[in-house]
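Lab manual, section 2.4: Encoding a predicted structure.

Procedure: take the sequence of the chain (143 residues), apply the prediction step described in section 2.3, and record the output as structure tokens. A sample record is shown.
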Amino acid sequence: MTRPNHQLVRDFFTALSSGTLADELLTHDMTVWTTSSGNSAKQKYLAGVAVLQSLFPAGLTYTIDSLTAEEDRVAAEVQSRGTLVNGDTFQIIYVFMFRIRDGRIASVAEHFNPQTVREKIMPLLQRATANAPSVPPIQGEPT
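Recorded output:
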């Protein structure tokens, strides 16, 4: 059982590097916890992946240093590297913990140094948010 789980996690990081996580890798009710965002549902996480990748014109590449799998769990030591839209190099080391159910990823916990994200990513996100056009509220929704 652990070999297919190794491959599933390898496929996850290949997809993450491309910025598009295929639905067949993930359970419908997948949950995510990250150091910077806390708990998220699948759709919020996928939206965050898209936003993050948009900050890297040539992509943010994930490289697996090691995988350890047992039963329904996989631990992955991973590095990412890319050049941000402002020309700065971004590199960070992570530990990901995956739970697998029925051959798909059911949960992910993503641990990393938040200081690197605060220094390199957050200013770009704040600038992008400040420059984004405002969207009118949907009729009937509170503003």
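Check your result against the sample. The mean pLDDT is 89.
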